[in-house]
Design a protein that fits this description.
3 domains; 9-stranded mixed beta sheet; Rossmann fold; 14% strand; 25 helices; alpha/beta; 6-stranded parallel beta sheet
């Protein structure tokens, strides 16, 4: 039986999708992995001109070509988030016109948060954590067993919906048995006019750069109303407790990726709660990471309340060069509306702590959500004021509010007679209001205080009828993108740069030179942090001093690993 996995998303990172495909590849010989990435079919100029429109639509002829290829499977497994749900439905409809017998399963975020919608279009959906459930389903289906009892699955059987309960959440011991994600092994990418073409390292470089993306910890301790995690917590309250494998496991995963993609120059942890992990775990991670991997790494999903100076010392000594934290708003009222665990004062406090480690890292990245229909003029002013006061420099990722169905945010807006169906724009698209133009301005430079106050008097929430500043938004978005690129080059960080640029720097030896000079100097400056880290790593043994030969031996071992590393 031929099984095809198909991801319909903005890119090919798709961490959970890759792990799921790896699970099935381990138990079934004929598995093909396909990627449909609409946004990658358009140039960066298109993205700027369209003010970040994600282009989740495709012409009917492309949908037909995609369907013709996917319909060759006996079992077809889709994964997509809600912004790409409608495109997924169109592809499914086209497939049904070609092959009525194909069994179609839909997993990923959308079926998990809106199962009532997804199940109407396919034979089965996977809700919640699917790794072991999907493995169980495939084994039962291929062996002609009763697969209709599979946990975490809903089935559409002759228009009768079978809803099964949730299996126990994956535990650290389970995560230890996850197969490492596979790359460029029977994987295909859809290209306009060409159809599906084999994925190569060249394609990975073009689409994802020279970074490796992964997740260490599963779960999130909070229930922000706009986030799908809040629904997962309702399904099982234990989802709020972080679960994570051993340090050895994650190091093994990265080593596996490096064997296949030797150009990887940094690692991005996309966790929602990495910074919330215990101090002892972070200490062990940093020491082993520096010794065995020795690549710069960045953290996403930073939770302000968990950013402490001791954790910052530990992580920067291990090689952390980047942090991404969600601000979302500078208005206390809006943050309460989102049920965010932070307030403007805590955000500023956390940003100040991060800025203290600026000599070890690139400027931090902050997320912000604009165009909330309940925002008042004061809410907009509060957000702009927070951005104005933040320690500089910083990088800002700007998003328009996008409402996921069935979330608490969707319910709260409905209570205010605001239908979430009215908020249909792509999450990368923002309105060209003066307030939003100012957001991009504040990201690029800090204007004089008198000018800033003058502009504040003129801003309005996007729901108020006002002049649209398309040219100004285009101009400052362009400057914003250029600044992100310059910062990336200054720090040899290629998460914000086109993939080819990073690959060229790697091929020409520029990255190697940077690591053997500038990065090396930073490492020497950081020896005191590493020494402190080593001392704290052996609390029950004798204390190590700056003159202790044993301490210097440990430092020398790490130093030797740096010198001998293939990345230097």
């Amino acid at each position: 039986m031929k099984i095809i996995f198909c991801s319909v998303e903005n890119g090919v990172i798709s961490i959970g999708f890759r792990k799921m495909a790896s699970f099935v590849k381990a138990i079934h010989s004929d598995v093909e992995v396909c990627y449909v990435t609409p946004s990658n079919m358009y140039s960066r100029i298109d993205a700027i001109v369209n003010f970040g429109n994600t282009n989740s639509e495709l012409p009917q002829k492309d949908i037909r070509l995609i369907a013709e290829h996917l319909s060759k499977a006996e079992m077809l497994c889709f994964s997509s988030m809600t912004p790409f749900a409608e495109l997924t439905k169109k592809i499914v409809k086209s497939i049904r016109e070609i092959n009525q017998k194909i069994y179609i399963v839909w997993g990923g975020i959308h079926p998990s948060v809106y199962p009532e919608d997804a199940i109407k279009h396919v034979d089965a959906i996977c809700v919640g954590e699917g790794e072991y459930s999907f493995k169980e389903f495939v084994l039962a289906y291929t062996n002609s067993n009763d697969y209709l009892k599979t946990s975490n699955f809903w089935f559409n059987k002759k228009n009768k919906i079978i809803k099964n309960g949730f299996r126990k959440l994956q535990q650290p011991g389970d995560m230890e048995n996850f197969p490492y994600p596979l790359y460029a092994e029977n994987e295909f990418l859809y290209k306009k006019k060409l159809g599906f073409v084999p994925m190569t390292n060249s394609e990975y470089i073009l689409l994802t750069g020279i970074s490796y993306h992964t997740i260490l910890a599963i779960g999130c301790p909070f229930k922000c109303t706009y986030c799908a995690n809040s629904l997962f917590s309702e399904n099982d309250p234990l989802y709020r407790k972080l679960r994570y494998p051993s340090v050895e496991y994650i190091i093994g995963e990265v080593k596996s990726a490096l064997k296949k993609q030797p150009y990887i120059s940094n690692v991005q942890f996309m966790d929602d709660g990495f910074i919330a992990l215990p101090v002892e775990y972070l200490r062990e991670f940093s020491i082993k990471w520096k010794k065995e991997i020795n690549l710069p790494f960045s953290l996403s999903g930073i939770i302000p309340g968990y950013v402490k100076r001791n954790k910052m010392k530990i992580l920067t000594s291990g090689g952390m060069i980047g942090m991404r934290m969600g601000i979302q708003s500078g208005s206390d009222r809006i943050l309460k509306f989102y049920k965010r665990p932070n307030r403007p004062g805590l955000i500023m406090q956390t940003a100040t702590i991060i800025s203290e480690f600026s000599k070890y890292m690139k400027p931090p990245t902050y997320d912000i959500i604009l165009d909330n229909p309940i925002e008042t003029k004061q809410d907009v002013i509060d957000t702009l004021q927070l951005l104005y006061d933040l320690p500089r420099p910083f990088i800002l990722l700007v998003y328009g509010l996008s409402v996921i169905p069935n979330t608490k945010l969707a319910d709260d807006l409905e209570k205010l007679n605001i239908s979430h169906k009215d908020i249909t724009k792509g999450y990368l698209k923002v309105e060209p209001t003066l307030a939003n133009v100012m957001v991009y301005v504040l990201t690029v430079f800090k204007p004089p205080k008198w000018m800033f106050k003058l502009l504040l008097k003129r801003v309005q929430p996007y729901t108020i009828k006002q002049t649209k500043h398309y040219l100004l938004l285009f101009f400052f978005r362009t400057l914003w993108l250029i600044k992100r690129g310059i910062i990336g080059l200054m720090h040899m960080d290629f998460t914000e740069l086109p993939g080819r640029t990073g690959w060229l720097c790697w091929k020409l030896g520029i990255i190697k030179f940077w690591r053997s000079t500038i990065q090396r100097k930073k490492y020497i400056k950081n020896l005191n942090l590493i020494e402190e880290l080593i001392k704290n790593h052996f609390p029950k043994e004798k204390s190590y001093s700056a003159t202790d030969s044993s301490s210097h031996k440990h430092i020398a071992e790490i130093d030797k690993s740096l010198k001998n590393s293939k990345f230097l």
